[in-house]
Fold this protein.
Amino acid sequence: MAKTLNIRKAPLKVLHQRQIVLLRNWRELLSAGRQHDADSLLPDLLLSINAIASGLRTTG
């Protein structure tokens, strides 16, 4: 498992960084009362969750 994760380390890092940006933007929009704009980020957020889970070969 460790060897497999080590091979995927660089691509997973990119996915994690993208997810952090998406979460930060989503939270900022919610704080600003821009619910509709925040909701428009949800598909990308869910996709990032699925991509990371796939990269880790786990569902969570």
Remarks:
- Residues 18 and 48 are 8 Å apart (CA to CA).
- The chain has a mean pLDDT of 91.
- Residues 2-56 form one domain.
- The chain has one domain: 2-56.
